[in-house]
Amino acid sequence: MSAKHKKRLNAVTSARVSLLDKSSTISEGKISKMKSLQPTATTNNPEMNNGSFFSILNVVLGLAAMVSISYVNVTYTYQIHENTLWFTNIKEVEREISFRTESGLYYSYYKQLVDSPSLWQGIRDLTEDKLTEHPDTVNILARMNIYQEVILAFIYRNINFQMEPIMFYINFVFYLQGLLIVGIYLLTWFLSNSWLAGLLASIFYIFNKNDTNRVSSAIPLRECFSLPFLWVQAAALTIYFKPAVSRWLERLSLTAVAFSTFFFCLFWQFNQFIMMLQAFALFGVWVLGLIPASKIKKVMLCQLCSLLLVCLLQFGNKMILGSLAVSFIIVSLTLLSVFKSPSESGSVFFNLLRVVGLSFISLSLMFLLSSVLKVLFQIDADEHIFTFLSDKFTQRDTKNFDSRIYLCLQIFGFITYDVFERLTENFVLPVYVPTHLILLLILVYTVLHRWRSQVKDNKQTDNKENVSEYYFEKHPDIAFHIVLAVFFGALAIITLRMKYFWTPYVCVFAALGVGNEDLWSFVLRLTKASNKHMGVSQVTLVRSALLVLTIAVVTGKLLPGVMKELEGKYEFWDPDTVELMEWIVKNTKPTDSFTGSMQLLAGVKLCTLRPITNHPHYEDKYLRQKTKQLYQIYGKQPPEHVHNILKKYNSNYIILEDSICRAPSREGCRTPDIVDIDNGVMPDDYFKIPDLIVSKIPRFCEMVRHQTQEYAKFFKAVFQNKTFRIYKVL
User: Membrane-spanning regions, if any (predicted)?
Assistant: First the structure.
């Protein structure tokens, strides 16, 4: 080879090597930049060792504060319950009576399982229950969400606890509220990167207990078991949605999501509605391009598997199969697979049209698939919910019995003004509102900016113009919670009972507004309030000082009220109901069945173990129709008609309550009025609904007390006190 060719070859080789070196340098630069996002494990540098020590100390302090505030919540909830009822000192029957309405029904199954010769025998009895809907036999495990009672009975029977079954039950629920605080604490900590913010959110939650939970007044309610797992799930989702987590942490958080979602769904019959709203939020952050489809699909699969597994455990609960949640998740998974990930090209109008179009398609297919499944599986158990919602939003004076029962209950009405007053007085709402609004505005700006500038992966995002986009690239988890909190807020506004999903988010976002480092940096940069060279440590110092100051102010202002509340000592006192239950146990046979108000009969079953004909768990069409007939005891009906109905259902006794029969007018919302309106009869003091006739037949519950010949031949008075009357059906 000539010297000339050698020189040329060396030059080319040298150029290639140079190019490779540059490429290697660029790649190393990218890798270095990526690695800079991860915490390093180097220990040779003394400064890094020092930083590592303080990081570990910070985590230890944060965990210690979490355990402490969790225990404070458990103790506080227990003490409020104890001070209200003196629960540890009253008789067993009084303790059971304190579990009002459906709470008593749920606890009765735990009592049944504990008292059964064996747990397996108790479970078999529940699958062939003859006490709850006499004379019918029903599978309670299929009808109701009571696996928590099965679990607690199993634990109590197999571990030698030195306490009564009822005390073990309520203490377990109280400790679950500690788990709820752990979920809220970790959620806020993960969102803000400050355990002080988690502490503040927990303090907000505890001080606003009247609007964040109702555990101390209704322990066995399904929400008391399920909500702790919802907030554990929220904390796990926060870790999972973060953009730069290790593979093992991603898997661990997804596992936590799967288990917490399953237990939430298992423990509450309203699981489908919350899963639907979560799925809406998941679909929303995907269609806006904030979280990748791969992560969204895995979370939706967790939701779908949880719902289907609960359906299986409830012996094929058709209501879950036909739910809007299942249909929407299936539709969303299909769309996510077909459309892959959102495109960042195109105009604002094109992208907006795409979002609206996909949303419309998903909702339309959801309703279509749900309708098909309901026809296919002959599902009608949830039709009363849609009738109720229709009547509620049209504001019409419905004659429907089921709708009026819900519409006349305040907890199913719109949120009341006093909720906002209390949240404002306790400092949380004034901080929450601007925080959530600012985050929403940043979110909207981020999406519009992406659409407008057609952002590419390699575009710089750390300049001032793109600071909001940079914020949500770092925190897609916050974007998800922003959207979900909007859905939960809307749910709380339209249904007061559902405020317990929204108010914890109020506490979380209020603490986030005070303690989020990136949010403070963004706000300061946007308003030019801080020096551009202001260091991260300085921002951290400012927000930590604000958090400590806020905690001190909130605690100082609200703690005296809590201490005063804890000074109040009361005792459960309901001698008329105690007398009623004791009379039933002593003077009736174990096989005698009872008819009365839904709320009272749940207590009758719990305290006396007598069969009842109806109860307050209202999620079955046949039971709703049966209850409407049995409630003719409060209607304007002749005695022979009422007698025929009671005989049809083999009822031996009826219990009448003067608090219902003689209740003052409430604009058509008394139980007698609801019965009259459904019968097409004009109520005593309500004249707004047209096409009602005036009945000349007197009210049964009032006339039967006089025991005239016309009534005495069908019903015999056997018990009476100031509140209750019992009649034997002859």
Answer: 53-72, 166-185, 219-240, 252-270, 276-292, 299-315, 321-339, 351-373, 427-448, 478-496, 503-523, 535-559
